[in-house]
Amino acid sequence: MLHVESAKYHSDYKIEVTFNDGSSHLVDFEKIVFNDSRAIVSDLKDLALFKDFSIKNHTISWTNGLDFAPEFIKDCSIKVLNETA
Asked: What is the pLDDT of residue 34?
């Protein structure tokens, strides 16, 4: 089962995420935040709120209660970081 091990704010709506499979990804949440009409998601348009996250239950969790499945987060990544072949 995939888990988020760590997450660090990068820039704009991007977060660097490391998973328990050893991979690290740069994930851009901008399209999700600005295209999802659900209030809990659109709340994250406020960059201060977007930056206010922690790791809970093996995934990224924001203070407004929003979280996404680790698999979804990995699928949204725009770049694989420090990947070794």
From this structure: 97
